[in-house]
Each structure stands twice: as C-alpha cells, then as structure tokens.
Design a protein that fits this description.
heterodimer; A: 22-stranded antiparallel beta barrel; five-stranded mixed sheet; 8 helices; 45 strands; about 5% helix; globular; B: seven-stranded antiparallel sheet; 4 helices
Chain lengths: ~800, ~190
C-alpha cells in the first residue's frame, strides 16, 4: 500500500512540475470596497519577487511574464489597510480587488469569516467570536455547546467533554494550534487540557472527513487556531475579565501581540481562573471549585514564500470533585440516588479538598513552511507534549495525601505535508505523520495501576484532493493509512487473568509470575484505513448543498484495552479487553444551507454505522469485602447513529433577529436491538436578540433551551444489596426529566479612541433558578445541576 | 529543480532544519524498557476477623478477599455455632494481606476513630449488639462490642464499616451516611 502511495506522490510531483509557464499577464483593478470607485496610487507588489507597480487613475495595474500558479499580492494604499491576497494564475488573468477604506469598520470577526472551510463537503461549523467571549470564563466544552449537534459529557460543572453527533472521548480529536492533543482523552472524567482563550479561531468538523489531521476521528475534529495576525507594524492586544456569582470567582485573560511588516510576530497570552464551590438552586455543591492557569507564547515569521513558528503553551488545572460523589459500594449509590440531595453539604469554600484532580499539560511546537513556485506549499512540524495527571481519592492514614492515580504521558510527533495548488481547479495534499508516545504510571501511589506503562508508535500517510469542476461544483476526497503499535507492560491479578480467559489466549505474553500477580507484555499492531469523498454544490448565490461519505477506523485506546480496577466515583469495576480490535465507521452526511442577509437555514441529517463499536456497559456483579459492585466491561458490537442537526435564523427588522436550533440523534446497538448508552437527548434552543448600532452597539438577547428527556436507554441492572439482603434494581441508566433553561444577555461597546474598544456585558444563565439534572452529567446520581449564575464581562481591546 | 537548490542554499532554512533536527533527536531518545515495579495494594482491607468469646468458648467469623476488587468473592467462614441466650464479647481485627507482611488496618481505624464506625445489623437468633468502646469524642467505634444471642435457631449478623459517618448518629446506617468500607454478612447457627 505504501508503495502505491509513493507512486501517486511521484506522479503528482511530476505532473505539477510541468505546469510551470512564465509568460502570463495579470491585469488588475483596485476599487473601494463600499462604492466601487477606482483607487489610484495603490502600491502593488508580488511577494517574494522584485515586482511592484502602482495603480493608475482608473485604479488599474498590470504585471507580465508571471509564472502560472499561486502567488500573493501585497496591496497598500495611504487611506486603506494593507492587504495580502492570494490568487491562482492560469494564463492571462484579470483580478478585481476591493480595498477596505474605513479602517475602523474592519472587525477581526469579518476577516475570519471570509476564510474558507477546512473541508468542502463535510458538516462544519465555526464558533462565533461573541459566543467565545460569552464563554471565556468557562470551558471549551461549554462554549462548543452553542453549535447544533454538539453536547457534552460532564462530571460536574467543570469537567466538560465535548460530544459531537453522539460520540465523545477518543472519537473526538482536538487540534490545538495544529497539534493533536494527547491528554488522556480516554477517561470519562478527563476534560480537554486546553485554555479556551489561547487559540480563538475554533471550528468543528462533524465526522472524520478531515483526513489530513487523523483517520480515527469518528466523532469529529475540534480545531483551535490562533486568530490571523496582520503583517503590519503594530502592538495590540485584548484583556477580558469575567466575574461569576456562582462559584463566587472569575477569570482574567490577556493577550499581547507585537507584529512587524516583515511578517515577524511575537504573541504572549495568559489566563487565570479561580472559582469556589458551585451552587445548585437549593444547596452548595461542596468541593466543586476550580483553579486554572494557562500561558502561551508564540514567536514566528510568516510571509508568502516561507515562514516558521515556535509555540509553547502550559496549562494547569486543579479541579474539585463533588465530595458526595465519592462512595463506598452499591448501597451507598442506591442511597444517593434515592435521597435526592447530596449526603455531604458543607458551607461555601474556595478550598479544593479530596477528591480532586490536578493536571498539567506542556505543549511545544516548531513548524516551518515554504512555497515552491509552480508546485505548492511544503510544511514540516515537530511537536512535544507532556501530560501529568494526579487524581486524589479520600484515603486514610499515611496515604491520605498520596495520589491514587499518577500518570505521565509524553508524546513526540513529527509531521510533514505538501500542498500542491499550482493548478487553479485542483488542490492535492500529501503528508506523513509519525508519533511516539510513552506512558508512565507511578507505582508510588500504592494503588494498582488503572492504565499500565506503555509505549505507542503511530505512523500515518495520507493524500487529500479537492477538484473544482466549475465555480459551483467542487469535489473532495482523500485516503489515509495508519499503523499503530501498542507495547504495554501490565500487571494482572492471576484471578482476573484467568477469569478473562487470557490464560488460554495470551499465555505466551507472560513475562513474570509473581504468585498472585502476573507481569505481561502485550504488543498489539493495528492497521487502519480511512477514506472520504464528497462534493459541494452552490445552488445559486445563497443556497448550498454538501454531501460527504467517510470511512474511518480507530484503534482501541489504553483504557479500552487495559482498564482494570475499581472507580470510587461511580462505584463500579471497569474492565478492559485485550481482544478488542479497531472499530470502523461509515458515515453519510448531507447538508442543505441557505445564507442570506435576511434569513438562512441549515438542515443536516447524517447516518453513522459503526462496526465493532467499542462500548462500556454494565455486564455482571462482583463481590468484595466492601459489598457488591457492578462490573462495567468493554465489548464490541455493531452500532448505528442516525441524527439531524437543524438551524434557522431570520432578521425580522434591522434590529431584531431570532435564531432557532434543533438536534436529535438516535443510537442503536444493532446486534442486540437495544438503545446505546449515553446518547444525548433531543434539544431545541430559541433565541431573540435586539441590536442597535447607534446605541453603542447595544445587544440584548434572550435564550431558551429545552432539553428533552432521553426515552431510549439501556435497561437497569439488578445487584445484591448486603444492606437489604436481597437483589435490588440499580437505577443507574434511567435518565432524568426534561428541563428548560432561560438565559439573558446584554452587551455594549464603547470606543475610547480609534484603536481602543471597551466592551461590557452582563449575562444570566438558568435565570429562573430551575432545579434540574442532565442525563449526560455523571454526577446526576448525587446532586442537581447548577443554579442561577450571573456573570459580568469586561473586554478591553488595545 | 532550481527551486530545490534555492531552498537548501538559504541560510534561514538551515537554521530551521537544525532546530527540527534537535526535535528529531529528542524524538528518538525514549525511556529505557525497564520492567515496571509491581504494586501491592495499600490500605485495602482484605480480611476482617471477628473474635467472639463467651462461656469459655472462642468463635471466629472471618471474611477474606485476597484479590480485592478482583473477580473472586470473599471467603466467609464461621468457626462454630454460638450458644443460645449467651452474651459474647467481640473484637474486630482488620488486615491487608495483599501486602507482605500483612498490614494491620485496625491500628489505622484506632488512630482515626472519630472518622470511623462499625454498624451491626442483626436478625433471627442474634438478638443484638452493644458497643463497648468509644472514640475521643465519646461516640461508639465498634472495634469491641458485646453480642447477645436469643433462643436456638438461625441468625444473621451484618457488619458495616463506614468512613466519615455523621457522628453521633442514631445507630442506623441511614442516619450515619458516610462511605462504606466494609459490608459483610454472616449466617450463624445458634444452638
């Protein structure tokens, strides 16, 4: 297979080298963006070449003897903002260029919204700058929930894992400044270790269509990129302060960017967050505070021909876990479910006590790109990540301050790719990714390792292409092959080894027999193939149709293979399975969109068939001296996810706009014909906003969110209760009731000077202080969700 | 081909390649493949031994679960039958036999006795249990107690150890709350 890809690579390079002809003429006209009047005296230069000219009185200019392919023009005008535009030249061409005359109206937001999508045919959405500002003090998962089809799997209010179209965890990839996050995303109580304020161009791709990033993102890809930095001499930045009534704290985030006309830039950014115990409408959620620190530094130089970047980020979070959710056995869990309120309610405190988790994440990246004339753009990148996770349980005696889990995950990645874009209607990208990862589980904890020591090697090779048949019809497609090797060293209790039947199937991997424990060395190889194909079709100016098919395969993660132990937070024993193989998903998605200034909509249905879907569900019960525990085991089955995401907006008058969103997904275990566990319920959100530019950009909004009750869930299980001396139903799968939340938001902007903006906002969530529990919050057995939160935000741009 | 030679000729790029080179060196340096150290579970209670003495007899009730949260059920043994209408004085010993030598967990309970309490739920021919010890606040702990039997027949004794219960409490599990560290029941014949 590799051989064939190499051939393809060679073929493409050969093909593109022939495209070089250097006798084309470029004619251009420069006009004012607003009234189309010609702009004379603009200075136009071709980046990377010593070609420059001025526009004449009719706003026209001309270059000759240019080579076909992609080139970049730099256009400056005394009254306008300097612009860089990229054009694809194919023979003699004419370009009309619109310059923005009114500097102050050029908001950051507008610049980004003109950036094209990452994939053409897949369902893709971008988080708006205003949503980001509203969620700056919360988490990435919270912010993404404003996108249709995105929900979250929570452990309390501060551990929020995004769910895209019903899937979460290892099925979702987070790309942080082009680095694939390696932060133990396999755990249900492991939140993404990213600061939402660090890279603020946030998009999601619903599905595995972006093969250049990975072949295993069956759920989707979250892409966090820095906002573009203009190539001008300037010093600018932004500071935001958020204060929250619930948690009685807030966060402060600030960034400062120095940029030069040469393309050199330095960016520094930092955030700090501190919240105490959160509150539900009726009681304090004891030990649910959070403290977070994020720092990042970027230095780089970008111009059209080449560029480099060095990036480093550090993220540290300490999160309290609801005290009442730490339980001893099944009777305690039953008692919690029945009592309706947490067993432990203390006075408000900023202190984070046991149980809690402390995670630090270091990320470093070096990248370089260079454009080859008549060929394309070549990129090379190395990145390093170090994730350290401590989890503390309530322990006694000399172990009281010892972590129960102490994992160190280090990852090195190397990636290179070349984008061949010299032809106007065809773009091909070919790339290679290599990765080495090592996990170390510290034995000092005195608790048997939940995840073993392992070394993991990944190698991926891909090619993607987009081909435009005409202005309205574009195809895209791709192919990727991934190799993963997992080499682990794990201790099994002899009793567990035999109970799983491993003594029959895996006897040859035993390294040492310690009597009651066995040291084994599983080495597993996975070969995964992924492919995608689709099209985008413009139906007139305002309507759009996208269709995509993606085939993706994902190798099992360490938790699915090796989990082996008791989770106090859920009173369950979790067991991995060495025999698990890769799961493979076939997804068809369709998207019909309309975008006009007065109204628009998106209707996006999808069907995702996952063969060998890896699922964790209750299977049996085991007894210990503590009493009974349900055993949750990983197994594989064929699953199907069918769903639809819909949104519609209407601009009723110049001031009043409404937005309506609906998403629904149905998850089914096709083998047993039963509903899948942890599938988000349908939800509908409606909002109305009033905006008046003349009154300091005043925006007032009212939002309503209705979350339906999940009616499709797996059956509860029965366990023996020592306290009752009989089998009792363990009501762990029954979803809570539907709920309705109202939010209110008001915001206004004050210009202090031409450059400085001051924005003030006030927001109230769960305005009516409704008591509710959410099906996808793992703490729903113990406590209500958050009550009313009033937050204030102050944003200063300079 | 011209572009390729340009590329390698540029001094800026050589620097970048050097930097990337360092990255690759870091990539190739991995930890040694040292075998990991086995972990013997600390502070896990594998064994609870209840000794009952009365009328010159000593009877032991034991629950032993050497594989902890492993698949094997605890082994429950009752050394002998109890005598009817007799008061026994009882004591509890807790061990972690996953470590060697075995660790005495009873001492940890004694040290943190305000945060622990045993609860005894009796049924059938076991008439009741009264505490005969107390913590520094004067609340019962249950490491020593007195057990009274009724007329001959079958009886049950459920022993529950709670960590961080509400103290004082009314003696019921529901009122005590806290987390369960032990929950074992013994079927006892009274003759």
């Amino acid at each position: 297979m590799n051989y064939r890809l190499l051939l393809l690579f060679a073929f493409c390079i050969g093909n593109f080298s022939l495209a070089q002809e250097c006798n084309s003429i470029l004619l251009g006209e420069i006009v004012d963006f607003h009234d189309n009047t010609p702009l004379s005296g603009a200075y136009i230069s071709v980046t990377g070449k010593s070609l420059a000219t001025n526009s004449n009185d009719e706003g026209k200019f001309r270059f000759q003897d240019l080579c076909d392919g992609v080139l970049e023009l730099e256009i400056s005008h005394p009254e306008c903002k300097t612009q860089f535009i990229t054009i694809t030249l194919k023979g003699d061409s004419f370009e009309k260029i619109r310059l923005e005359h009114h500097l102050e109206e050029l908001d950051e937001v507008d610049v980004i919204s003109t950036k094209p999508n990452i994939t053409l045919s897949a369902q893709e959405e971008k988080l708006s700058q205003s949503e980001l500002e509203k969620n700056s003090g919360r988490s990435l998962g919270d912010a993404l929930k404003s996108i249709t089809g995105v929900s979250s799997l929570n452990t309390g209010a501060n551990i929020v894992k995004p769910i895209i179209q019903g899937l979460n965890g290892s099925r979702i990839l987070i790309l942080n400044n082009n680095v694939r996050m390696q932060d133990m995303e396999w755990g249900e109580e492991h939140a993404p270790n990213v600061d939402i304020n660090s890279n603020q161009d946030i998009r999601i791709i619903k599905g595995a269509a972006a093969l250049e990033y990975s072949g295993d993102a069956i759920g989707g890809v979250i892409i966090m990129n820095p906002l573009p930095i203009a190539r001008t001499d300037s010093l600018f930045g932004k500071t935001q302060l958020n204060l929250f009534s619930n948690g009685r704290g807030g966060n402060l985030t600030s960034s400062l960017i120095k940029s030069y006309k040469s393309g050199l830039f330095i960016k520094g950014q930092g955030s700090y967050k501190k919240l105490g115990d959160m509150e539900s409408p009726d009681y304090i959620l004891s030990n649910t505070g959070i403290q977070e620190l994020g720092v990042s530094l970027t230095i780089g130089k970008r111009d059209f021909i080449q560029g480099w970047e060095a990036y480093y980020s550090y993220f540290d979070s300490e999160i309290g876990i609801l005290r009442a959710s730490h339980i001893g056995n099944v009777d305690d869990l039953i008692q919690s479910i029945n009592s309706g309120q947490p067993n432990i309610i203390n006075d408000f405190s900023f202190n984070i006590n046991r149980p809690n988790q402390e995670v630090t994440h270091h990320l470093g990246k070096l990248s370089y790109y260079r454009r080859f004339e008549g060929l394309g753009k070549w990129m090379i990148q190395y990145d390093f990540q170090n994730n350290r996770r401590f989890e503390y349980d309530i322990r006694v005696g000399s172990d009281a301050n010892k972590a129960s889990l102490d994992l160190k995950l280090a990852t090195h990645s190397f990636a290179t790719n070349i984008k061949l874009d010299a032809k106007e209607n065809l773009e091909v990208k070919i790339g290679l990714v290599g990765r080495y990862q090592t996990n170390f589980a510290n034995p000092e904890t005195g608790v048997r390792r939940l995840i073993p020591d392992y070394d993991k090697y990944d190698l991926g090779i891909f090619t993607t292409a987009t081909y435009a048949i005409n202005d309205d019809f574009t195809f895209d497609g791709g192919f990727r092959y991934d190799f993963n090797r997992m080499n682990a060293q794990k201790f099994y209790r002899t009793s567990r080894w035999e109970e799983r039947g491993y003594d029959i199937d895996f006897n040859d991997i035993i390294v040492e027999d310690l009597g009651t424990q066995l040291l084994v060395n599983p080495i597993f190889d996975y070969h995964n193939v992924s492919a995608t194909a689709g099209f985008k079709y413009n139906i007139g100016n305002e309507n759009l149709l996208r269709f995509n098919y993606s085939l993706a395969q994902r190798a099992p993660n360490p938790s699915e293979l090796f989990s082996d132990g008791l989770h106090h937070s859920a009173a369950r024993i979790e067991l991995g399975e060495l025999r698990i193989k890769s799961e493979s998903s076939s997804k068809i998605s369709l998207s019909l969109e309309k975008n006009s200034t007065s109204w628009g909509y998106t209707v996006a249905p999808y069907l995702n068939n996952v063969n060998d879907f890896i699922i964790l569900e209750p299977t049996t019960v085991e007894f210990t001296i503590r009493g009974a525990f349900p055993v949750w085991s990983y197994r594989q089955t064929n699953a199907q996810l069918l769903g639809i995401d819909m949104s519609i907006y209407n601009q009723w008058t110049t001031n009043i706009r409404t937005d309506h969103k609906f998403s629904w997904v149905r998850g089914e275990d096709k083998s047993s014909k039963t509903p899948l566990i942890n599938i988000p319920s349908a939800n509908i959100s409606n909002s109305i906003s009033y905006h008046k530019t003349a009154w300091n950009n005043l925006t007032i909004g009212l939002e309503s969110q209705y979350v339906f009750e999940q009616k499709r869930f797996p059956e509860n299980i029965f366990v023996f209760s020592p306290q009752e001396q009989q089998n009792v139903e363990l009501d762990i799968n029954t979803p809570p009731d539907a709920y309705h939340l109202i939010a209110f938001d008001v915001e206004s902007t004050f210009s202090i000077s031409k450059k400085n903006d001051f924005k003030v906002g006030l927001r109230a969530t769960n305005l009516l202080n409704t008591s509710y529990r959410d099906y996808l919050n793992r703490q729903r057995y113990f406590a209500d969700d958050l009550g009313r939160t009033i937050s204030a935000r102050i944003i200063y741009k300079y | 081909m011209k572009t390729i030679s340009n590329f390698f000729g540029s001094p800026k790029i050589n620097k970048s390649i050097l930097i990337l080179g360092f990255g690759l060196i870091a990539l190739s340096c991995s930890d040694d493949d040292d075998a990991p150290v086995a972990v013997d579970e600390e502070e896990v209670i594998t064994t609870m031994t209840i000794t009952l003495t009365g009328s010159g007899n000593t009877i032991t009730l034991q629950s032993q679960d050497l594989d902890g949260d492993g698949p094997n059920n605890p082994e429950i043994t009752v050394s002998d039958n109890l005598l009817a209408n007799t008061t026994y004085s009882g004591s509890i010993e807790l061990l972690n036999e996953a470590e060697s030598p075995a660790e005495d967990i009873t001492e940890e309970i004694e040290e943190e006795d305000e945060e622990h309490q045993f609860f005894f739920t009796t049924g059938g021919a076991i008439s009741g249990v009264t505490y005969s010890d107390e913590d520094s606040d004067g609340n019962p702990v249950g490491l020593s107690f007195e057990l009274t039997t009724g007329d001959a027949g079958e009886g049950t004794l459920l022993v529950t150890l709670r960590h961080e219960p509400t103290k004082p409490n009314d003696g019921s599990l529901a009122d005590a709350g806290g987390e369960t560290d032990i929950a074992q029941s013994f079927d006892i014949t009274v003759q």
